[in-house]
Amino acid sequence: MAIEASKAGERTxxxxxxxxxxxxxxxxxxxxRMAARLDDHYDLVAGALSSTPEKSLASxxxxxxxxxxCYGSFQEMAEKxxxxxxxxxAVSIVTPNHVHFAAAKAFLEKGIHVICDKPLTSxxxxxxxxxxxxxxxxxxxxxxHNYTGYPMVxxxxxxxxSGELGDIRLVQMEYPQDWLTEPVExxxxxxxxxxxxPAQSGAGGSTGxxxxxxxxxxxxxxxxELDELAADVHTFVEGRRLDDNAxxxxxxxxxxxxxxxxxxxxxxxxxxxxxRIYGTKxxxxxxQADPNYLWFTRLGEAxxxxxxxxxxxxxxxxxxxxIPSGHPEGYLEAFATIYTxxxxxxxxxxxxxxVDAAVVYPTVDDGVKGVAFVEACIxxxxxxxxxxxx
Length: 390
What we know:
- The chain has 12 helices and 14 strands.
- With 390 residues, it is of the alpha/beta class.
- The strands form 2 sheets. The chain has a 9-stranded mixed sheet. Strands 2-1-3-4-5 form a 5-stranded parallel sheet, with helices on both faces.
- Helix 5 (124-136) packs antiparallel against helix 12 (364-382) and helix 6 (151-161) packs across helix 9 (206-222).
- It is globular, with a radius of gyration of 21 Å.
- The two termini are 38 Å apart.
């Protein structure tokens, strides 16, 4: 597989990694750390892991970091690490959305590569400003839309790009959850509190948290550019300040149509991300809950089940496959693929060479599109579902 290390004796040194956010009690920080470790391309050596110096130090000690490199703020971390000969070469930003802009800007301006959780920022103004910073920086920006790392997602994308589906007509995306069916944010549940707070999350609730994932995945596989949308965005739980359900109709450039449903109050659903794409020649269907399989159906023929690592998997899937078919790969491996793709790009930049054309990861441009999608959904819903250009 192409994501494995170089030949023995030729191993590229590990990338020195820092982390902003992701301290004690944080879910996604631990996921990022596991993803960075899986293919052994990174060493976590520094962090500004929490909102106070005391919590950051305690979190750093838990992870075995040098206490001198457990910083009280990302600003301090960017300054001091950039001044060290052995300073970090890349940083993971795993904070609530409202911190992404300032933190990413601070490290990009120091020439430190940024691997940032989605969505890009909490508002479109900041997203566009961050793109300007990233475009000028002597550093890479990688956005962790981790679902793009699944082998069968890569296979699906290649099927579309090679013309196997013909002209794309329909793109359907859904991401239902049920964990916010009740007002758990009012009980102090950490993950719910910030995600339902406009000051930390931005204008979108379910649209920003999971709708952006569904939209990004549909766009990644189909290769289509969104033109306009019409959205019915709603908050079902009384007292909640952000949306917990949305139905969105999509019009893509070139004439394809789409539908997207995201919900965090769909009782009985856990993380039901699913994408269906239909063209003039064939259709495909992929479900995140069963990610090692992709359904492919040519018009007038029997449905074909393509398996990760199986005989029908293409080269795009094979290069991000770690283990033989029949042994399931899932969420953490897909997340790790984004980190490994980032490592390939960072190492190429360090060596001054061109990155392999097969390396694919979400960029700041994808992030801007995601935030624009959220704000267009909110704007459309305020117009009673009127069509809004994106």
